[in-house]
Amino acid sequence: MLEIKDSVAVITGGSGGIGMALARYWTSRGGKVVLADIAEAALAGAAREIGSETVTVLCDVTKEEDCARLADTAVERFGKINLVAPFAGIIMDGMLVSTDRDTGKVNRKMPLEVFRKVIDINLTGVFLTVRECVERMVNNGCRGLICFISSTGSLGTAGQINYSSTKAAMSVMPKVLTAEFFRRGLADRIRCAAVAPGYVGTDMVKGMNQKALEKILGEVPIGRLIEPEEVASLVGEIYRNEALAGETFFIHGGLRLGSRG
After folding, report:
1. DSSP code, position 93
2. What CATH number corresponds to the domain at position 145?
3. pLDDT score at 27
4. CA-to-CA distance for 100 and 98, rounded, in angstroms?
5. Three-state SS for 237?
6. 176 CB contacts (<8 Å, ≥6 apart)?
7. CA Rg, the chain, in Å?
8. Could you tell me the residue range of the domain that residue 230 belongs to?
9. What's the domain count of the chain?
10. Do 62 and 123 contact (CB within 8 A), yes or no?
11. pLDDT number for residue 155
12. Considering only CA atoms, which of 43, 86, 47 is closest in space to residue 173?
């Protein structure tokens, strides 16, 4: 079993939501955190709240040089990387095509820039973050976990062809990297897994239209949103248990079982 105490976590998208909850979880158990985000003011606020053992890095995960600097900062400040949590992501929903109610013909298409922006941040950004951190982990003999964040949306949600595609990729990446690391004799040192939350009680979700939120909760057997802290706790359990690798772990309150038909 790995211990969180004195371990170093690199977290992107760390100024709020699940990333922030994970940072609090990690430091409260004696770990150190390198917190990255593109929102400078929010990042500074997160650092003040978390307090000691936290380093912040202003980082655009779509830029190679920013991701390299993030990984370098972790090693320079703390000497190692043990957890990589590339949680930076966005949602820009929309249908592939929309049709006119009267004519049945297409009257609107998802703009390429909307599709591409989500792919750039949610997929390419994860690739760059993980690539740079893994390089430093291997070169410095680190032991730990790469934990991707997928979603129940990875199973396919209408209006989210961009977002769902990236989250499906997050479920595949742990399998691919576990196989690659096994071939290189690294799989016993660096494990890969993913967590896939359902509807999480972030500020964005709680700020939804009340009727829409009630409809969502009506499909969740436990009758409530998942708390960010519960997702953070799951990440911690996967980190500690070295038998867990190559899989996606769902945490959704039974969401996919909750349709009342």
Report:
1. -
2. 3.40.50.720
3. 96
4. 7
5. helix
6. none
7. 19
8. 8-249
9. 1
10. no
11. 67
12. 86
Helix (H, G, I), strand (E, B), or coil: what is residue 31?
coil
Closest CA to 176 of 250, 231, 252, 248: 248
Is 178 part of a structural domain of the chain? Answer: yes
Collect all residues with Cβ–Cβ distance below 8 Å to 41 and sequence separation of at least 6: none
**257 within some domain:** no
- Cα–Cα distance, 128 to 121 (Å, whole number): 10
Q: Which of 25, 163, 199, 239 is catalytic?
A: 163
Does residue 3 fall inside a structural domain? Answer: no
Interatomic CA distance for residues 63 and 184, integer angstroms = 27
Q: Are 130 and 68 a contacting pair, CB within 8 Å?
A: no
Domain assignment present for residue 44? The answer is yes
**Beta strand pairing call for 106-109 and 97-99:** antiparallel
Nearest-angstrom CA–CA distance, 150 and 139: 27
Active site residue 163: yes
The number of residues in the chain equals 261
Do residues 240 and 1 lie in contact, with contact meaning Cβ atoms separated by under 8 Å? yes
CA dist 195 → 48, 183, 217, 223, 248 (Å): 27, 24, 20, 20, 5
The edge-to-edge listing of strands for the beta sheet with 144-149 is 54-58, 32-37, 8-12, 83-86, 144-149, 190-197, 248-251
Average pLDDT per run of 10 along the chain, which is 261 residues long?
97 93 96 96 91 92 98 98 96 90 93 96 97 98 94 71 91 96 97 93 76 82 93 98 96 72 48
The dihedral sign for the CA sequence 241, 245, 251, 256? negative
| H/E run at residue 173 | helix 161-183
Tokens standing for residue 217: 């909760």
Q: β-strands 190-197, 144-149: how paired?
A: parallel
pTM of the predicted model as reported, rounded to 2 decimal places: 0.92
